[in-house]
Amino acid sequence: DLVPGRRFDYADTSRAETVLHPAMATLRGELHRTGARVLAVDGSRNQFLLPNLTRAWDVPVAGGTASLGIRTYMELLQMGPSGAVSPEALGPDNRSMDLFAIRYALVPEGSTLASALEHQPARWQPRRSLHYYEDDPDTHYTLFENLRSRPRAWCAAHVEQATSRESLDIVRTGHFPDGREFDPARTALVEPGALPPWNAQATTPVATVARPTPRTYIVNTSSPCMLVFSEVFYPWWRASVDNEPRVPMLVNHTMLGIPLQPGSHVVRLWQRPTSVTVGAALSGGGVLLTLALVVAPKSGRAVAQSSPRT
User: What pLDDT, on the 0 to 100 scale, is given for residue 308?
Assistant: First the structure.
């Protein structure tokens, strides 16, 4: 199936529809170079980024559907079951798109949303018009660039405690309850009690984050900071700092974070699903049990044959 929740026969799908559009192939190269992502605001209706083929096409996308999406991530992006996002998520104050390195958004051409984004030139810039089928206006899109997009990882100088609900509201509105602006480049939101008192200095640390490989980061920071990853929080994420195991924290409602001390660090990130470990252990145990059952009767017969007669 090309679209989750809908059934197609193979005869219904043309070969051309399973091949990545040339415009997306060009964009894919840039996304890989920069670590950015692209979003189809209309979700599974978008012919350029069919949800069940983007992984096969190796296109870094932000999106999901009801059957595959993570609840907190879909909450933050205000994403519906089809993967379509609310226009509010692209509003001038909302920081959700920025947090997840969404550098580009495909928006239906001539739509109300496209017009609204054109009135936010400090954030959204139209880059090009894309037509999947020239004779079908429903497949005509404008590719917008998000000038506020964050990188795949960065150091935030400060942390502030906020519940999950409070964090969601802060990111969506771009402001703290007391009216202060929320700048994710400077501040990370953590659950109450998740960290000891933070050294909230007035100065911003000098910090650089380089990404030599997709899951390895070289961090240099002059003072403590929270390394925030543009990844969705899962319990099976694993990390190390200078080859020492670390447990990633939940930050900004649905992201990963690791607190770092001043200095130069090599940070690695990977996934190790618990189900895989448990499955391997159960499989190994099953093999050993089978071998024991097979070998035990033979050993018993051998002992009986070699025992002296009385």
Answer: 47
